[in-house]
Every structure is written in structure tokens, then in C-alpha cells.
Design brief:
Layout lengths: L7 E4 L9 H17 L2 E4 L13 H12 L5 E2 L15 H13 L3 E4 L3 H13 L23 H9 L5 E4 L6 E6 L3 E6 L7 E3 L7 H11 L4 E5 L6 H11 L7 E5 L2 E2 L9 H7 L8 E2 L6 E2 L2 H4 L3 H9 L14 H7 L10 E2 L2 H12 L4 H14 L6 H11 L9 H4 L1 H4 L7 H7 L4 H13 L6 H15 L3 H13 L7 H8 L1 H15 L3
Parallel strand pairs: 1-2, 2-3, 9-10, 11-14
Antiparallel strand pairs: 4-5, 5-8, 6-7, 12-13
Helix pairs in contact: 1-11, 6-7, 10-12, 13-14, 18-19, 18-22, 19-21, 20-22
The chain binds one RNA strand through strand 7, helix 6, strand 14, helix 12 and helix 20.
Length: 512
RNA sequence: GGUCCGUUCGUCUAGGGGUUAGGACACCAGAUUUUCAUUCUGGUAACAGGGGUUCGAUUCCCCUACGGACUACCA
């Protein structure tokens, strides 16, 4: 199938809201395969449902994928030889295809009103059918061009009666559909219904539009979510009815992304519930004005996010798990995609981010952290900031953690950890610190070495062990229990600040 | 309910007729560290159940259970 010609893949979301992580992963897998094979990657917008259109969703999709480093070759935002790439702009071409199917006997007009449809379903439920279908059995009792006399059909069409075009599903035919990930999937058409292909508002449904566009855009591989597996037989039948089966794309249905715990598929609520970002970039609902945090804004790295997503449902077959986009392009294969759903583990994502963060040079990290520093109103130099980054890098998981974890580098402790105060702030600690402050004032250049030796001399003079004073010293400087190497931290803060912090601590916490 | 898809440590997964069932996250313990983090070492922890096939099944087949998707003039 499609040998010799370079593959053409597409990502075809509908702009009904912000792009879900599952969508990002689908786009990623398509992208990886396109790059690997020297193929083309297309972004097509499936906006055939005018009622569900959400303002800004299309741009959000584009921006999200751009942030992830997923690039297109053709698409709604950049044009290309197979445009337009927005289905609403292709509206005029679908009717002819739907009509063609009617002419070939593979589809028919149906005039049933919503009410009549409901009545049919109620009737069938009442007589024991669990899921009523508009199919080869029931269609004879409905109002359509198969059940109505030809002249009435003509009259209704001529009079402009609203109608839809439905697929004429064969009564009982075994259908074999091949999926790259799942192998052969067999279904009987008796289980399928006469799906609407063309809606009364003049727009096609997904089923028709997707087949027609994939054909017209010469798509060779359809990689999409598992939720499409049940309707793939219909799509195959559509290709067949059009006489396009020879150039039908290969199908691959990706396993779902599941909730981190509990049952069901991953949803925005899971992020909300855990207080974690959910979308690639932040999203503001145009109707409610409500904003959902994004990974970009929270200080995650796009390559960490992509790395994490790539391993949900796919693996290279060995124990490696850190990959650049280039490596993913090289290693990816549909054959190694799992069949079962994968839970979305926020914790593992954080771990990936931490791994990437540690590889960032302090100077670069300083640049990334700058906006937070400014937002906090801290005055600093780039040199100082870089040093803080050098000291704190190992302790951060997210770039966004910086402003919370590094406060004491920029201002005096806001509070002193009560537990440490209780345990360490005892005589003669305060008076030692007063002496330490005095001694430091006589030092000209205070590096980590000088600080340590002065500290040491105070310790000796007081007849104590170094360890007895260290914790309290950290407390005086930062107010916290943990942190980077103490003397390096002190040296970075500078002599004057250290002296001031010591005196202030004694003032605040008393003399023991 | 029906159809389809699935089921290896808590999670992501490797493996595959004979293995001490491997790795990673998380968790726990120890070492290191003034401390937190890091790092290092170690540990707990899995083939859903039942039938076959086979000398042998976690691996192949069937059934059951469980989970999921779909079941719209939504995609």
C-alpha cells in the first residue's frame, strides 16, 4: 500500500476546546513518523460542527504544538497545495461526494425529523431493543428515499424539505479492517447503523469529511485515538463505495490516556483535582473567562513534556527513557506502540522535567528565572542570579519553583522555622552569632573560605563543635532547615547581608 | 444492554513456551551531607481467574472476570 511515495500524515483536531494531552500525543506520533520517513505532516481543522465551535481553540492547538516543537509542513496556519485545510472552507465540495454515493446506491436521502427519530428509538426501546439503530431493518419504516415512492422523494427534494444523507449499511456482511497496532479487527455490518454522512445544515459529518479529505489530501496513514476504532469499518466501507480502496490509508489506533488513578480516561478535572497544569499552555475559556494552567507557564520544559508523552504507549524496546526529539524521530515505530491505555502519571512528568532542568547551564537557567524575579520585585544582578541558580539547580523540579524556593537569597527571612528554633536556638548560640557578626565586619573580602574560618574560630572560642552551630547559622541566614552548602550560600549573600541577618535573628529570636 | 479493544510490580513498561520475570517513577531503608536536595547502595512489589494444548505455560487457544472505547444530523 502506498509504496514508493513518501507518506503523508495528518493531525485533524476539531476546534471545540483546548487541545487535550491525548491530542498532543497523537500529533506527536504522527509527527515522528512523518519526520522519520521523510513524509509530510498536515494540520487539518475539522470544524464541521458549527455548534461546538470554540473561539480561540484553533489558535490554541497551533500554539500548543508549536511549543512542543511539533512542526507541520502544510496546514490551516501555513497553507499548502491541498488546501484549504479548514473543513468549513471546504464545505462546497462535500455535497457532490455525498450525492455521488446516493447515485451509486451506497447512500440515501432521509427526511425524518428529530421527533420521528426519537419516536422510533422509544418504540424500539419499549419493545426491548437496547440500542435502537437506523439500519437495514428499521429504515423501511422511516421516511427516506429507500422507503418512500420516487415521486415523493423528488417532490420533497424539490420543495426544499430538510434532509440528511445516510450511508446504506449492508445488512449482513463480515468486514475485516486492518489496524497497524491491533492487527485484523473483524466486525459484522449487522452491528453497524446507517450513519449520517451529510447533515441537514449542508455540512458533512466527520465520517464523510474525514474520508473525502484524506483521499483528496493523499493521506497515507491515519494515526488517531482509539475512540475511532469502532467507526473505522464505516470509513473502510466509504472508501470502498467511492472506489478508493486501492489508495486507502493505513489505520493505526492509539491507546487512550487514562486517569492517574481511578477509572476512565484522562480529563481536565484530574489536573484540577491535583492542582497541576493540564494543557501544554494555559487556556482561558472564552465563555467563562476561567483560566487553566499550562505546562509552559508553570515552568515545564517542552522537551521534558514531549519525552514523557512519547513514553505513554510507546517504548524503544530497551531501558532507555531520555530522548531528544531527534532520537524519537529515529526510534519511533508504530509496531512498538502498546494496545492498552496508559495512565497519565503527573509525578513521572515532574521527574522528567527535573532531569532536563539539571542539564541547563546556570547562566541559561538565570535567564529563564528572570521573569519570576522581576514579578517578585527583587533587585539583583545577572551574576548574582546565575550563582543562585548554580547553587539551587539540583533542588528544583520546575523552573517555576524558583521564586518560592529562593526567597531568602533576595530578602531577609520572613519567618524562622519554629522546629529548628526550638531545637537549636539556645544559649550560647545567640551570643556566638553576635561575636561572629562583629568578627565578620572586620573581614574585607568574605569568600566561602573566609566565612568558614571565621565561623570556625568563633566555634573554637566558645568551646563548641562546628555542628552545634551550623543549623542555627543556616536558620539565621535563611529561616529554613534545608538549602545549599552553607558557607557558599553565605559568601553569595555577601558579608554585609550575613552580618545583618545574624543580628536580626538575635533580635527576632532573642538571646536564648 | 450490544459491538469492538484491552489486562506483567501502586504507575509507565521490557520480556516471552524452560528467566532469580528486567528497567524506570513512586515508596521504604542504609551510606554520604551541617541540613534539605542530589548522589550511591539495598529493599518491598507483578504475569486477573479457570480450563485446555504441551514434558513444561506468565508466554499459544478458549471461557470467565475486570477495565476501556463506541453505541448523536459531536468529533
Amino acid at each position: 500500500m502506498n509504496q514508493g511515495t513518501p507518506p503523508r500524515l495528518r493531525f485533524a483536531p476539531s476546534p471545540t476546546g483546548p487541545l487535550h494531552p491525548g491530542g498532543v500525543r497523537t500529533a506527536l506520533f504522527n509527527y515522528l513518523l512523518a519526520r522519520q520517513t521523510g513524509g509530510t505532516f498536515v494540520l487539518r481543522i475539522e470544524d464541521t460542527d458549527q455548534n461546538r465551535f470554540v473561539e480561540g481553540a484553533e489558535q490554541f492547538i497551533i500554539d500548543s504544538l508549536a511549543w512542543c516543537g511539533i512542526k507541520f509542513d502544510e496546514g490551516v496556519h501555513m497553507g499548502g497545495p491541498y488546501g484549504p485545510y479548514r473543513q468549513s472552507e471546504r464545505k462546497s465540495m462535500y455535497r457532490q461526494y455525498a450525492t455521488e454515493l446516493v447515485e451509486k446506491g451506497a447512500a440515501y436521502y432521509a427526511f425524518d425529523t428529530e421527533q420521528e427519530l426519537d419516536e422510533m428509538r422509544d418504540r424500539m426501546k419499549a419493545s426491548g431493543t437496547a440500542s435502537p439503530q437506523y439500519n437495514s431493518i428499521t429504515r423501511v419504516n422511516m421516511k427516506n428515499s429507500l422507503s418512500l415512492p420516487a415521486d415523493e422523494v423528488r417532490r420533497r427534494l424539490g420543495a426544499g424539505d430538510p434532509y440528511v444523507i445516510r450511508f446504506r449499511m449492508p445488512r449482513n456482511e463480515e468486514l475485516r479492517v486492518q489496524d497497524v497496532i491491533r492487527g485484523w479487527v473483524v466486525v459484522n455490518t449487522a452491528q453497524l447503523d446507517d450513519k449520517v454522512l451529510f447533515k441537514s445544515d449542508g455540512m458533512p459529518t466527520y465520517h464523510l469529511a474525514n474520508v473525502v479529505d484524506d483521499k483528496l489530501m493523499r493521506i497515507t496513514h491515519v494515526i488517531r485515538g482509539e475512540e475511532w476504532l469502532p467507526s473505522t469499518p464505516l470509513h473502510v466501507l466509504l472508501y470502498r463505495a467511492f472506489g478508493w480502496e486501492d489508495s486507502m490509508p493505513q489505520f493505526a489506533h492509539l491507546p487512550l490516556l487514562l486517569k492517574p488513578d481511578g477509572d476512565g480516561k484522562l480529563s481536565k478535572r484530574d489536573g484540577d483535582r491535583l492542582g497541576l497544569p493540564f494543557y501544554a499552555i494555559s487556556w482561558t475559556n472564552p465563555e467563562t473567562g476561567e483560566t487553566t494552567a499550562g505546562y509552559r507557564e508553570a515552568g515545564y520544559f517542552p522537551n521534558a513534556y514531549v519525552n514523557f508523552l512519547a513514553l505513554l504507549g510507546w517504548n524503544p524496546g530497551d531501558n532507555r527513557e531520555m530522548f531528544t526529539m531527534e532520537e524519537l524521530v529515529q526510534l519511533f515505530s508504530l509496531e512498538r506502540v502498546n494496545k492498552h491505555g496508559a495512565r497519565y502519571d503527573f509525578q513521572k512528568l515532574a521527574w522528567f522535567n527535573q532531569q532536563y532542568l539539571r542539564k541547563i547551564a546556570p547562566a541559561d537557567l538565570a535567564l529563564m528565572v528572570r521573569p519570576q524575579v522581576e514579578a517578585a520585585g527583587w533587585q539583583t544582578t545577572s551574576g548574582f542570579l546565575e550563582e543562585v541558580c548554580r547553587l539551587m539547580r539540583e533542588r528544583l523540579t520546575l523552573v517555576g519553583d524558583f521564586s518560592n524556593m529562593c526567597i531568602y537569597f533576595f530578602e531577609f527571612p520572613r519567618q524562622y522555622d519554629p522546629e529548628v528554633v526550638e531545637k537549636r536556638w539556645k544559649s550560647p548560640v545567640p551570643s556566638c552569632f553576635l561575636s561572629l557578626a562583629d568578627a565578620l565586619e572586620r573581614v574585607d573580602a568574605m569568600g566561602a573560605g573566609e566565612l568558614e574560618s571565621v565561623f570556625e574560630s568563633i566555634v573554637v572560642a566558645a568551646g563548641l563543635k562546628q555542628g552545634q552551630l551550623m543549623q542555627a547559622f543556616r536558620l539565621a541566614l535563611s529561616g529554613e532547615v534545608g538549602g545549599p552548602a552553607l558557607f557558599e550560600m553565605g559568601a553569595l549573600l555577601g558579608r554585609d547581608s550575613v552580618v545583618a541577618r545574624l543580628r536580626r535573628a538575635v533580635e527576632m529570636l532573642g538571646h536564648g
